[in-house]
């Protein structure tokens, strides 16, 4: 998917969708980091 954050479309639904995908991506990354940290403690 080739979305560029600097490009704003005229479609507010699409813009909201892209922001939602960014949010989900950040959440997944933070969960991954958390799991790695817990693995190292064991």
Task: Explain briefly what this protein structure is.
Helices cover 71% and strands 0% of the residues. The protein is mostly helical and 42 residues long. It is rod-shaped, with a radius of gyration of 15 Å.
Radius of gyration, whole Å: 15 Å
Total beta strands = 0
**Overall morphology:** rod-shaped
Question: What is the rounded distance between the termini?
Answer: 37 Å
Major sheet characteristics: none
Mean pLDDT: 85
Structural class: mainly alpha
* Strand residue percentage: under 5%
Q: N-to-C SSE series?
A: H
Helical segment count? 1
Q: Which percent range fits the helix content? A: over 70%
Could you list the spans in which at least 5 consecutive residues all have pLDDT below 50?
A: none
Account of the 3D structure:
The protein is mostly helical and 42 residues long. 71% of the residues lie in helices and 0% in strands. The chain is built from one helix and no strands. The longest helix has 30 residues, at 12-41. The N and C termini lie far apart (37 Å). The mean pLDDT is 85.
């Amino acid at each position: 998917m080739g979305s560029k954050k600097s490009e704003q479309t005229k479609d507010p639904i699409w813009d909201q969708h892209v922001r939602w995908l960014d949010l989900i991506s950040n959440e997944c990354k933070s969960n991954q980091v958390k799991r790695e940290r817990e693995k190292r403690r064991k």
